[in-house]
Design brief:
alpha+beta, four-stranded mixed β-sheet, 22 helices, 47% helix
């Protein structure tokens, strides 16, 4: 019993001594396992997030691929020829926060998309700004050291040339002294030219002495400019050196030529003595050589290069700049290319007041910044920028002066493309020497066809006469390019309006230009579409058209972007030797309404409908609306390779050269883009907008994209053709074709019930 009673007392005494240890161990293990599990979960989550951000692709189902960099940006980055740097310098602290964030986001995405691109932001108000400034100049100094040495040597050689010209002027002292002595003894010429000779003798020595002194001092005058240092980095001021060299050279040349003219007057006098003629001949010889040497000095000074390091230094010294510095160009580049692009910083960091007035969203700002930067990147080493010539047959100033093309002009200017106007009936073709002094820039003629049915206007010509004169002038433009391969490319962006000339059996002269490129425009038969509404039958002339699918640069630039056209005229492919044709925009033959009976056709009796305003057509009786007549109209589109049965309303053509010209095959191929309407690029069409997600966007982005892409293609700058960021501001789902729509309907009606049935069968089988 004692043993049995002791047992219960010992047992509890053991448990209290061991239980706390086990409990503590268990709790510690649980905590360790929990912490380890939590760490593993967080680690896996972090790793997954990192890998997803770096490697997993993002699916973008919008038609314009707007969920990332635009095609233009990607193409610009892919085309970088070497290490490229974007430099943003300014008062970044006081910039608008929304604009600064948008710029930073775009710069980060561009930098992450290309290993060749680097970004440097220089805050001119910070303590480190000077160090960043010095680092930029030092890197450029290392890159351009050999070019700077060569430019410095060239400047010193020019100074030596000036000394040679000064020596010739010094040699002119002797014959001038002889003429002075001759005048003191007797009159060596007749009274008619005696005052001229006295002027040479009295004024010549002083003038020539001044020019001699200036030319002799050139070496010392340009020394400070050549030895200039900025923040301890050698940066020769070649612009200053050029000015110092040119001024005395120009003055010496002009004064020498003036004296030579006076000498010629005296020599022409029959009364001039032989002794005077001999001295004048010696003087003229020295002055001629001095003038020729001064000409050479001017050439040498003008040849001094414009170094990127100097341009960067000037821009950064102003305290606010946006710069893109590309790889150094090869020596001797002469096609207008540049390795440095300057950007107006206000276009990247607009003022907050401007942003509030425009109600710009973050997406709008990012697309604007991306558009500016991608265009600048694409412009590096791209050659001379095109020059757009807006060609019309109205009085001078009647087009650009009306501000109808402001949006187009602004957009092209952003890409470095200048716009000028040419009235073919009021003036000769503009030379534009201020915009293109060396005639390096390819010219693109945006041709706005006149209304052939119009009465005589201020030009004194009827519409049909203006059409004929315009076609004649444009043919001369193409012939000039075809006969001279040294000319920069000249191409036409031809906009053809409906014309009454084919209706009366006469050819349309402008349409005949397109035929030479393998495209026949039916300008006498615009497209009409029958629309059946609850109010009755109507006829539509204006429409949104979709780009024709293809892999050509022009087609890719328009992919997924709706384009608005009015009174479009169809076109077809014809046989023309040596031509290549590409369809751009098309209208499905059954487009325009939900009713099964709706159809599109080419109408020949359209003049009455065109005279009625679009908003007033609902008042027309149904009997007065055009009706498709199989005996008179074309009800189906003509065959056009690549258009898949669509009515083609815009196409591009190319031919080797003007047929029969001596330069055929030597010049770049001549190109033409023809659009079957003439008002598709004006502001009332291109600037139509709508609100998407609470912000305004362009309703017809394809119009300006077509203009932009066409100008670059016509200028033979295919590498610059791509959709811009501004075209992708509003995400749009690509239009679905009939076969795909049929599959979607079948999947919606039958697919879901079948999926439910299969799910039930699977669960039933699993439960067994």
């Amino acid at each position: 019993m004692p043993n049995s009673s002791a047992s219960p007392t010992k047992s509890p005494s053991k448990n209290p001594t061991k239980s706390p240890i086990k409990s503590s161990t268990t709790k510690t293990s649980v905590l360790l396992m929990t912490a380890l599990s939590l760490g593993l979960v967080l680690g896996v989550a972090g790793l997954a997030t990192t890998l997803a951000g770096r490697t997993l692709p993002r699916l973008d189902l919008t038609a314009s691929a707007s969920a990332g960099l635009s095609p233009r940006s990607k193409q610009a980055l892919a085309g970088l020829a070497g290490p490229t740097r974007i430099i943003i310098a300014g008062d970044l602290r006081n910039a608008d926060p929304k604009a600064r964030r948008a710029l930073t986001d775009v710069l980060d995405e561009l930098r992450a998309s290309s290993p060749l691109l680097s970004v440097l932001t220089v805050d001119t108000t910070s303590e480190t700004g000077l160090d960043d400034y010095r680092a930029v100049l030092q890197s450029l100094h290392e890159r351009e050291a050999s070019q700077m040495d060569g430019a410095t040597t060239l400047a010193k050689q020019a100074a030596a040339t000036g000394a040679a010209a000064a020596s010739e002027l010094a040699s002119a002292r002797a014959p001038l002294a002889g003429l002075r002595d001759l005048l003191a003894r007797a009159a060596p010429t007749s009274q008619v030219t005696l005052p001229v000779l006295r002027g040479i003798v009295e004024q010549g020595p002083g003038v020539l002495a001044t020019r001699e002194k200036d030319l002799q001092a050139l070496a010392e005058a340009i020394r400070p400019a050549l030895e200039q240092r900025i923040v301890d980095v050698p940066v020769p001021a070649l612009e200053q050196a050029r000015s110092l060299l040119l001024a005395p050279a120009t003055a010496a040349r002009q004064d020498a030529r003036t004296l030579l003219g006076e000498i010629a007057k005296v020599n022409a006098d029959q009364g001039t003595t032989s002794e005077a003629r001999s001295l004048l001949s010696q003087l003229a010889s020295h002055l001629t050589r001095a003038a020729d040497i001064a000409d050479g000095l001017q050439t040498q000074a003008s040849a001094l290069p414009r170094l990127d390091i100097a341009r960067v230094a000037e821009a950064l010294a102003r305290g606010s700049a946006g710069l893109i510095v590309g790889p150094q160009l090869p020596t001797g580049n002469a096609d207008g290319a540049s390795s440095l692009i300057a950007i107006d910083l206000r276009s990247l960091l607009p003022d907050g007041v401007v942003l509030e007035a425009a109600q710009a969203s973050k997406t709008d700002l990012q697309r604007r910044v991306e558009d500016v930067l991608s265009t600048s990147l694409a412009s590096l080493a791209a050659g001379a920028k095109p020059l757009l010539v807006v060609t019309h047959a109205d009085p001078p100033g009647a087009v650009l002066g009306t501000r109808l093309f402001d949006a187009a002009v602004e957009r092209l200017a952003l890409r470095g493309i200048d716009t000028i106007e040419w009235s073919v009936v009021g003036e000769d073709e503009p030379k534009a020497t201020d915009l293109d002094p060396k005639a390096l820039r390819p010219r693109v003629y945006l041709v706005i066809a006149p209304d052939a049915s119009a009465q005589a206007n201020a030009t004194g010509l009827t519409g049909s006469q203006r059409v004929q004169q315009m076609a004649t002038k444009l043919r001369d433009v193409l012939k000039a390019q075809g006969s001279d391969p040294s000319l920069a490319p000249r191409s036409l962006l031809l906009c053809i309006a409906p014309s009454i000339l084919p209706t009366y059996g006469s050819p349309d002269p402008l349409a005949q230009l397109a035929e030479e490129f393998g495209i026949r425009v039916q300008s006498g038969e615009p497209l009409l579409t029958e629309v059946l509404t609850p109010q009755g039958r109507s006829v539509e002339t204006d429409r949104l058209v979709q780009p024709i699918e293809g892999d050509a640069p022009l087609q890719l630039a328009l992919r997924g972007l709706p384009t608005y056209v009015t009174w479009a005229t169809p076109m077809e492919r014809i046989d023309a030797p040596g031509t290549t044709v590409l369809p751009l925009l098309g209208v499905p033959s059954g487009q325009a309404a939900s009713s099964a009976g709706a159809r599109t056709w080419a109408e020949s009796q359209w003049q009455r409908l065109r005279s009625v305003r679009r908003e007033d057509r609902a008042l027309l009786p149904a009997a007065q609306l055009p009706t498709p007549d199989p005996q008179r109209e074309r009800l189906a589109p003509a065959a056009f390779a690549g258009a898949d049965g669509q009515w083609v309303v815009a196409a591009a053509g190319e031919r080797a050269a003007e047929p029969g010209s001596q330069a055929q095959g030597a010049a770049k191929p001549q190109r033409l883009v023809v659009v079957g309407t003439n008002d598709w690029a004006i502001d009332p069409v291109t600037q139509q907008g709508r609100v998407v997600d609470g912000r305004p966007v362009l309703q017809n982005p394809g119009n300006l994209e077509l203009l932009d892409a066409s100008v670059h293609w016509l200028a033979h700058q295919d590498n610059l053709i791509a959709q811009s960021a501004s075209a992708t501001v509003a995400p749009m789902v690509r239009a679905i074709d009939d076969s795909s729509l049929r599959l979607v309907r079948i999947a919606t009606i039958a697919g879901l019930p079948l999926l439910v049935l299969l799910t039930g069968i699977t669960i039933r089988l699993l439960r067994k």
